[in-house]
Design goal:
The chain has two domains: 235 residues, D-Maltodextrin-Binding Protein, domain 2 (3-Layer(aba) Sandwich), CATH 3.40.190.10; 168 residues, D-Maltodextrin-Binding Protein, domain 2 (3-Layer(aba) Sandwich), CATH 3.40.190. It has 20 helices and 16 strands. Strand 1, helix 3 and strand 2 form a beta-alpha-beta unit. Helix 3 packs antiparallel against helix 16, helix 15 crosses helix 16 and helix 18 runs antiparallel to helix 19. The protein is globular.
């Protein structure tokens, strides 16, 4: 929105909007400005003053690893020695219902994973389910407070207060197109078409057409029994809304990233977004995407051509792991930091926890102790992984494999070979150069539009997956029909309310 801005430039923007935040209540003081590297302790953290080891319960995202005992034993031995804490993991699974039930019924567990898409952070914070840690952060956990850049803390605010610690990683989002290099580039000869992919979805069409032509000429087969050049599930294209700073993403309401006037719009009234949807419909008609996409709940495990949020090196460290092919990537857009990207992974403390200080100290510990952070991601050294001595590690088995993105910072991790040793260092540099939204910290207050939000949700459930999959042949007619239903259920009121709140936030 006003060009590229480095992290330090945010200070001026924050000062300009300070009066707006003050009107929302005490914000616990100004976050400390920091752009330095990650703290890399080596085990000199002190146990708690009582000398007793406290067991904390942590609602961890995802399913339990298949054989995690050795990893958890090693983790608890180290954390007990260093800070007098050990962890009992409660795995949330692939649906947040169980965790949300525990939170809403007043569970006295300790740490919980929360974010923009799981146990929705702004909602659970405003409902009083999370402990307000604003005032504790600079005093109880100063290393953590100094480690995260100011824009991260600002993005984590809910009505000027902080209820969870954001995970400092690829917190400014970049979107990449990706492909099975062996099949798409080496076999089909589509390197030029892949490098030509860009912001608009239509830039990918020549690539998919060339890949399909190659497959058709060779019996119509794709690797791993995939059925088309591009494969996705019923959620449709990943990153469909990259044009926008989302205000209410579930309802496709936001501000264009390049709009200096900050006009709140429906995605479906934006020409570029609609053009992308029409391209998806063309893909579906031409057989460039899997024809069963509208029925699939699970994302495809394998890749021909795809897209996702990532970083330089993700093709080796993540997307290519345990694959029998090399992955190539090409940047679509980013990095761009807004509230939604910053709160994409967070750790909060339940309001009824009996170990608030110990929990916050543990969150600091896993974000600042390099040895523990690598164990938390990879397991016990010598059992689950080995250090290659060149700044990278190699996994020895798949017994322990939590979602490392849902735990703590990436910037203490040693990358998994063959990713380069400086991958996460380079990522941190990229984050500090990210474009920052002027709406960092803005959250839509839905108190006066709850009825409209609920009513329009039903309409979106009816249409959006099909539009994002491309299964509607006439996109214009479908959007017109959907918008008519949305207008009748209060969609325009939501947009107008959001605009008024955005204007107030910016001091207009």
């Amino acid at each position: 929105m006003k060009g590229k801005a480095k992290v330090l430039s945010l200070l001026l923007a924050l000062a300009m909007t300070a009066s707006v935040f003050a009107a929302c209540g005490d914000n616990g003081g100004s976050p400390s400005s920091n752009n330095g590297g990650a703290v890399s302790n080596t085990g000199d953290d002190k146990p708690n003053n009582s000398g007793e080891v406290v067991e904390l319960t942590w609602w961890h995202w995802g399913e339990a690893s298949k054989n995690p005992d050795a990893a958890i034993a090693a983790l608890n031995e180290k954390s007990a020695k260093d800070i007098g804490v050990k962890i009992k993991f409660l795995y949330s699974g692939t649906d947040d219902t169980k965790q949300k039930t525990a939170m809403s019924t007043g569970a006295s567990d300790d740490i919980v994973f929360t974010c923009s898409w799981w146990a929705h952070y702004p909602t659970v914070a405003q409902q009083g389910q999370l402990y307000d840690i604003t005032d504790m952060l600079p005093t109880e956990t100063p290393d953590l407070w100094k480690f995260l850049p100011e824009y991260m803390w600002k993005g984590a605010e809910v009505n000027g207060r902080i209820y969870a610690v954001p995970t400092y990683k690829d917190s400014a989002a970049s979107q990449f197109w990706s492909c099975n290099k062996d099949f798409v580039i080496d076999a089909a000869g589509a390197e030029a078409e892949f490098k030509a992919t860009g912001m608009k979805v239509a830039t990918v069409t020549p690539l998919l057409q060339k890949v399909k032509a190659y497959a058709d000429a060779n019996g119509g087969t794709y690797p791993h029994d995939m059925t088309a050049p591009f494969n996705y599930n019923k959620a449709g294209l990943n990153g469909h809304g990259v044009w926008f700073n989302p205000i209410l993403d579930t309802h496709r309401i936001g501000v264009r990233n390049d709009d200096s006037n900050y006009k709140v719009v429906s995605y479906f009234e934006d020409a570029d977004y609609v053009a992308d949807l029409k391209t998806l419909a063309e893909w579906y008609k031409e057989g460039l995407v899997n024809q069963d996409c509208g029925q699939l709940d699970k994302e495809p495990e394998w890749l021909v051509v795809g897209t996702g949020q990532g970083w330089e090196g993700v093709e080796d460290s993540n997307w290519g792991v345990n694959k029998d092919y090399k992955v190539a990537i090409n940047r679509r857009c980013g990095p761009y930091a807004n509230t939604s990207t910053i709160i994409g992974s967070m750790q909060g403390i339940l309001a009824n926890s009996k170990h608030v200080k110990e929990s916050l100290k543990y969150i600091e510990y896993m974000n600042t102790n390099a040895e523990y952070r690598n164990m938390l991601a990879y397991g016990a050294e010598g059992v689950n992984w080995k250090d290659n001595g060149d700044g990278t590690i190699s996994k020895l088995n798949d017994d322990y494999g939590p979602g490392a993105f849902s735990q703590a910072t990436f910037f203490l991790l040693k990358p998994v070979s063959p990713a380069p040793a400086d991958m996460y260092t380079a990522m941190q540099v990229e984050m500090d150069k990210a474009e920052l939204s002027e709406l960092l910290g803005f959250l839509l207050n839905q108190d006066d539009i709850q009825t409209e939000v609920a009513a329009t949700s039903t309409v979106f459930e009816k249409y959006t997956n099909g539009l994002q999959c491309g299964t509607y042949a006439d996109v214009d007619a479908t959007i017109a029909e959907m918008m008519k239903e949305l207008e009748a259920t209060g969609y325009r009121k939501i947009i107008e309310t959001a605009q008024a709140q955005v204007d107030a936030f910016l001091g207009k």
